[in-house]
Automatic annotation (TrEMBL):
Protein name: NADH oxidase
EC number of this enzyme: 1.6.99.3
The encoding gene: nox
Domain of life: Bacteria
Gene Ontology MF terms in the entry: oxidoreductase activity
Family the entry assigns: Belongs to the class-III pyridine nucleotide-disulfide oxidoreductase family.
Pfam family, one: Pyr_redox_2
Length: 451
């Protein structure tokens, strides 16, 4: 069995490893246009902020370690043409410029995503940087120490973390976004209002409700123009989102309008013996019970593993995703899963978001810290579709717990009565997770009585 894998980001790496684990006899060939594999791009901002012990450790596999597992790794090999019906790939060796054609029994598409690059005058300036690949990371890192002013375009996770790390290392930062809040797609207003104050405390100029209309080089840097004003910096870094990198397969597979390849529960595409995983493909989003495009490393890894498990027979179903994620900004842990009230409304769900704040352990302890908690739930059924937590205490696993609750389609009533331990070192008699669920139940009962 000959299997060709296009791309060696997270999904491609895990697909190749799992295929060899399940089927040692399979001939697995991976084509990768770059010279590195498995780059943990989520660490770029931390590296820029000097919080990485060794940048080489931002890779969990190397081409050599993959070869040692019996996988043929063709690095610096660009797939130029892919005939998915015949399973034929035309490939250029970027080092020698030699072009070859190979045919396979099965094709796995793990080409990942590409940054959104809007058609803005001046965006091709050498002072505009991107934040996606190892090359992007090394380019930013090479100039970071000498920067005094940086404009970050986009206040999602990437931009938010970049702005924070640059500000704590003494840079003058301008954070620009077209939305009315930072992290607007990740958290509700109670959370974003609080973290925006932290940016302002740290001298970050937060510019909202403004889209960039032009970049223009100046003698000392770059000018960023919006409809409401202009801002100057040494460089601008774009972090405004990603699109599926699937142009190579245009017209050959069923896709979403943005090009994300539609896969079923077994990572199979609309073409026999062609699989897709990771940022190139769709996911099943459990809060909405529908397919969606959510490029996250955690989705890519699990989908890559599923390719390996299902490459011969469809045996292991995809359980879907809740898009669980986290970030730490100014010593505040911010974690989220599923939807908040704003994003749920965009998806057409009728929900309520219940928000409370309470200390994570009893006040008789020598120290404690407050936790801002929220649950988003369907008004009619009480089904949980989202949750968020924010604290200087480590609340990271709270999002994972609520993620499982969403996956299992639990209601606020069920979560409020679930078993959580009490011990004063760790929690209140009622843990903050069932506490916010109890508040949601009370809110639901009040609504019922009102009607």
């Amino acid at each position: 069995m000959k299997i060709g894998i296009i791309g060696a980001t997270h999904a491609g790496v895990y697909a190749a490893k799992q295929i060899k684990s399940e089927h040692p006899e399979a001939e697995v060939t991976v084509f990768e246009k770059n010279t590195t594999v498995s780059f943990l791009s989520c660490g770029i901002a931390l590296w820029i902020g000097d919080h990485v012990s060794d940048p080489e450790k931002m890779f969990y596999e190397t081409p050599e370690s993959m070869r040692n597992q019996g996988i043929t790794m063709l690095m610096a090999h660009q797939v130029n043409e892919a005939d998915l019906k015949s399973k034929t790939l035309t490939v250029t060796n970027l080092d020698t410029e030699e072009v070859t054609t190979q045919q396979f029994d099965k094709i796995v598409i793990t080409t990942g995503s590409k940054p959104v690059i809007p058609n803005i005058p001046g965006i091709d300036s050498n002072r505009v940087y991107f934040c996606k690949s190892w090359d992007d990371a090394t380019r930013i890192k090479s100039v970071a120490k000498d920067l005094k002013r940086v404009a970050v375009i986009g206040a999602g996770y990437i931009g938010a973390e970049l702005a924070e790390q640059l500000s704590v290392t003494g840079k003058q930062v301008t954070l620009i976004d077209g939305a009315d809040r930072v992290l607007a797609k990740n958290f509700g207003p109670a959370f974003t209002e609080r973290i925006q104050k932290e940016y302002e405390k740290n001298n970050v100029d937060v510019v909202l409700n403004q889209f960039v209309s032009k970049f223009e080089n100046t003698p000392n840097g770059i000018k960023i123009t919006t409809p409401n004003g202009s801002y100057e910096a040494d460089i601008a870094i774009l972090g405004i989102g990603f699109l599926p990198n699937t142009d190579l397969f245009s017209g050959q597979l069923e896709t979403l309008p943005n090009g994300a390849i539609i896969v079923n529960d077994y990572m199979q595409t609309s073409e026999d013996n062609v699989y897709a995983a990771g940022d190139a493909s769709t996911v099943f989003f459990n809060p909405t019970q529908a397919i969606d495009y959510i490029p996250l490393a955690t989705n890519a890894i699990r989908q890559g593993i599923l390719v390996g498990k299902n490459i011969v027979e469809p045996t292991t179903r995809y359980l879907g995703t809740q898009a669980t994620s986290a970030v730490e900004l100014y010593e505040q842990a911010m974690v989220a899963t599923g939807l908040n009230s704003a994003t749920a409304k965009e998806k057409g769900l009728d929900v309520i978001e219940t928000v409370i704040e309470s200390d994570y352990r009893p006040d008789f302890m020598l120290s404690t810290t407050s936790v801002l908690s929220s649950l988003t739930w369907e008004k009619d059924t009480g089904r949980i579709v989202g949750g968020s937590f924010m604290s200087q205490h480590d609340v990271s696993q709270s999002a994972n717990l609520v993620s499982i609750a969403i996956q299992k389609q639990m209601t606020i009533d069920e979560l409020s009565m679930s078993d959580f331990f009490f011990q004063p070192n760790f929690s209140q008699p009622i843990n903050y997770i069932p506490e916010v669920a109890l508040a949601a139940v009370a809110e639901k009962q009040a609504l019922t009585l009102a009607y």
